[in-house]
Amino acid sequence: MLLMAYGSPTSLEEVEPYYTHIRGGRRPSPQALQELQERYRAIGGSSPLPAITQRQARALQARLGEGWQVYVGMRHWTPWIAEAVSRMAADGIREAVGVALAPQYSRMSVELYVEAAEAARRELGAHSLQVRYVRSWCRHPAFVRCWADRLARALAAEGFQQAHVLFTAHSLPERILQWNDPYPQELHDTCQAVAAACGLERARWSFAYQSQGRTPEPWLGPTLEQALQELARQGLRRVVVCPVGFVADHLEVLYDIDIEARAAALRLGMELARTESLNDASDFIEALAHVVTAAAAQVEEGLARAGGR
User: I need a surface site. Which of 46, 183, 221, 258 has the fewest CB within 10 A?
Assistant: First the structure.
């Protein structure tokens, strides 16, 4: 299995090369770099994402058992996706399932993971290594249950039983709408499924995009802060944020929600709580295992048909 994640710096010194890679090789301005370093400093000086991803891989390896080997590749930091593909080829792997830790598909997110893996495979000339990619798992029942269980626990907290639920995910540039990109619909499908599993009426929940990039082009909205402002205008005073677009604690969760959004809520006279992240919890690992084994079964079925011919 090729487990692909976004990647994050593990120290303040790594922030500049990491940020430069995200920007396609263009170094950030000193001001932009300082701002990002301050955000990382606010959550402890580094992101827990790399360590969480490795724990997810080890747990998934144990769950899948004999006959499987889990390789980790990151899109924007080490270990790079290309490094993981190279190790797979060197180890003689012939059949693999590739999964990006981004449940909802977009050409600007999941497809870029796939392209990175395929570029590495072509460059190596690893034609004998065949990878089946799971491009979307946003509606998988086990994944939905993971979020529904955490949302139910958050809503059971004292004072939050009647709180409004605000689902969030990372924003993308608006130009994806010109491609009929399925990202917004897939997010809606995840939110709707989780809300239904918790028995929430439509009036009890809404959705916002967060962590917009700092580029001149317009990004998908409403933003998390705009959504909080609208809820405050409606007289709502307690909100539970459920970031269904993320599967692990990292900067966009620990800073953008826990620090920045919570401060915005306080200014609006609101209380903000957040659902627990999935990280390497056993139910999430079980959900990933179901996603992977289902894809592997399809590969085996295809090979069997080909052999029959």
Answer: 221
Residue 306 has pLDDT above 60, yes or no: no
How many CB atoms are closer than 10 A to CB 127?
9
pLDDT at position 235 is 97
Backbone φ and ψ of 71, nearest 5°: -115, 140
The region, left, alpha or beta by phi > 0 then psi within -120 to 50, assigned to residue 163 is beta
* pLDDT exceeds cutoff 90 at 296: yes
pLDDT at 301 over 70: no
Does residue 307 surpass a pLDDT of 90?
Answer: no
Per-residue burial over 195-204, b if 16 or more Cβ lie within 10 Å, else e, is bebbebeeee
Q: Which of 71, 3, 14 is nearest to 251 (CA)?
A: 14
CA angle 25, 29, 34 (to 5 degrees): 110
Among 289, 259, 308, 250, residue whose Cα is nearest residue 75: 250
Nearest to 130 by CA among 295, 305, 309: 295
Question: Model-level pTM?
Answer: 0.95
Residues 159-168 have a mean pLDDT of: 97
Query: Tokens 């999935």 map to which residue?
Result: 278
Taking the C-alpha atoms of residue 242 and residue 276, their distance in angstroms, rounded to an integer, is 8
